[in-house]
Design brief:
single chain; 475 residues; alpha+beta; Rossmann fold; Dna Ligase, domain 1; D-amino Acid Aminotransferase, Chain A, domain 1; 3 domains; eight-stranded antiparallel sheet; five-stranded parallel sheet; 20 strands; binds adenosine-5'-diphosphate
Length: 475
């Protein structure tokens, strides 16, 4: 990884400059639907929004060229309703579907239906999603590819007895994880054999309820790891590159709150090793389109594959800001069969970017705070990007996730990115609901965050600190 991307002015328009599709349907809502619409607008691609009855007044509907209502508010009846989404594409003549993240984005059956209907799915193949989407199976694939894995079970654990034997072999603490898990759910940390049977059964029933699949596997539980992930892009001609790493260690209940690129702790040699490993992993499955390989990094500098996300991530903007590459536009080009528009040596991390997820939640209790936004002002100025679909008088429906905006700050270095994030949070106005913004503001002042000395456990200690010192100086 070297300097900023070398963008040579092309003598004549490259073939990649042609709009990759005439019309794209976005099978999603909220900020990511809007993000895809913006990319399409820049590329001269027509857009079709789909929406549930709860999203009639949403901005993704307003800014798309066409819109189709696909059902009532519950996502099972609208955004996850495959026949309705496909019908909307057929009626409007959309050639391709961008799934965003969540909803149908990692559903191999949906990819096959798109294919059967002659619609291009903007993402990898159903086969790749199947291989990498099931976490336990993905680990087996990665083992064969020579990617370092967290010590753990050999695939799925069928019984409590088997769980006890494996835990004894790898040593406590262990974590039981749902094979089909996501969003931090279906995981249980277990410290001793006495509590294992109950936790194992809980994990299975939570997994069954949340993902319709009760298969679980087990890993060694690392005490204070850092979450490091690598952005991958590949085309359908065998080219795979990485766009550097993101650190997502500031998490609560295994859900990311703050992400940044680059990580504050990787030295160039370790960065190179992690990124090369991610490319090797992606190549091993013939990966194409955008994807993310997630690792846990321990204190000794050893890192272990955790999972692959076969879609665009919530936190992709931090990578876009430091590399200058528009990941969503590249996704469209790749899906249309074009070659990657850059080579590995063109990709360079320059400066530093931090993203704060602003959720509609009580900032210190993390209880949901749905409702109507009565006043809204988003910060601007140098180095600030806001990805959101919120507007004045918007009502946050209780049916979907609680994210209202992603506030992203870019600076020439980490200190400048933090300073810009502070002033952006200070000039952000969201009234009518509670949000996590005040929590982020305090984290930006915390000496641990400033020094970069934190792990995925850090939020737990910080929340304790807040209880002792609810209003005051976090130091
Ligand atoms: P999900 O797909 O639900 O997001 P992941 O497998 O990506 O689940 O894990 C989410 C988070 O859970 C990680 O970022 C990390 O903080 C924690 N975690 C997962 N596995 C382990 C482990 N073996 N040891 C320690 N923490 C873990």
């Amino acid at each position: 990884m070297g300097a900023a991307i070398k963008r040579k002015a092309p003598a004549k328009p490259a073939p990649n400059d042609a709009p990759p599709f005439k019309k794209v349907l976005i099978a999603n809502r909220g900020e990511i639907a809007l993000r895809v619409i913006l990319a399409c607008k820049e590329m001269g691609v027509q857009t079709v929004a789909v929406y549930s009855e709860a999203d009639r007044n949403a901005l993704h509907v307003r800014f798309a060229d066409e819109e189709v209502c696909i059902g009532p508010p519950p996502s099972g009846k609208s955004y996850l309703n495959i026949p309705q989404v496909i019908a909307a594409a057929e009626v409007t003549g959309a050639e391709a579907i961008h799934p965003g993240y969540g909803f149908l984005s990692e559903n191999p059956h949906f990819v096959e239906v798109c294919q059967a209907c002659g619609i291009t799915f903007i993402g990898p193949s159903a086969e790749i999603i199947r291989k990498m989407g099931n976490k336990s199976q993905a680990k087996a694939t990665m083992l064969a590819a020579g990617v370092p894995l967290m010590p753990g079970s050999d695939g799925i654990i069928e019984t409590v007895e088997e769980a006890l034997v494996v835990a004894e072999q790898i040593g406590y603490p262990v974590i039981v994880k749902a094979s089909s898990g996501g969003g931090g759910r279906g995981m249980r940390i277990c410290n001793n054999p006495e509590e294992l049977p109950d936790l194992y059964n809980n994990a299975r029933s939570e997994a069954k309820g949340a993902f319709g699949d009760d298969s679980v596997y087990m890993e060694k539980y690392l005490l204070e790891p850092r979450h490091i992930e690598v952005q991958i892009m590949g085309d359908q001609h065998g080219n795979v590159v990485h766009l550097g790493e993101r650190e997502c260690s500031i998490q609560r209940r295994h859900q990311k709150l703050i992400e940044e690129s680059p990580s504050a702790v990787l030295d160039p040699a370790l960065r190179q090793r992690i990124c090369d490993t991610a490319v090797m992993a992606a190549k091993a499955v013939g990966y194409y389109n955008a994807g993310t390989i997630e690792f846990l990094l321990d204190k000794r500098g050893d890192f272990f594959f955790m999972e692959m996300n076969t879609r665009v991530q919530v936190e992709h903007p931090v990578t876009e800001l430091v590399t200058g590459i528009d990941i969503v536009k590249e996704q469209l080009r790749i899906a249309a069969g074009q070659k990657l528009s850059f080579r590995q040596e063109d990709v360079v991390q320059k400066g530093h970017a931090i993203e704060c997820r602003i959720n509609a939640e009580d900032p210190f209790k993390f209880t949901p705070s749905p409702g109507r936004i009565t006043a809204l002002h988003f910060p601007g100025g140098p180095g600030i990007r806001v990805d959101t679909a919120m507007h004045q008088d918007a009502v946050i429906p209780p049916h979907y996730d609680s994210m209202v905006a992603k506030l992203i700050a870019y600076g020439s270095d980490r200190a400048e990115a933090i300073a810009r994030m502070r002033r952006a949070l200070d000039t952000l106005v969201i009234e009518g609901i509670k949000t996590t913004a005040p929590l982020h503001r305090r984290i930006m002042d915390h000496p641990d965050f400033i020094a970069g000395t934190f792990s995925t456990k850090w939020m737990e200690t910080f929340m304790e600190e807040l209880k002792r010192n609810p209003a005051g100086d976090p130091r």
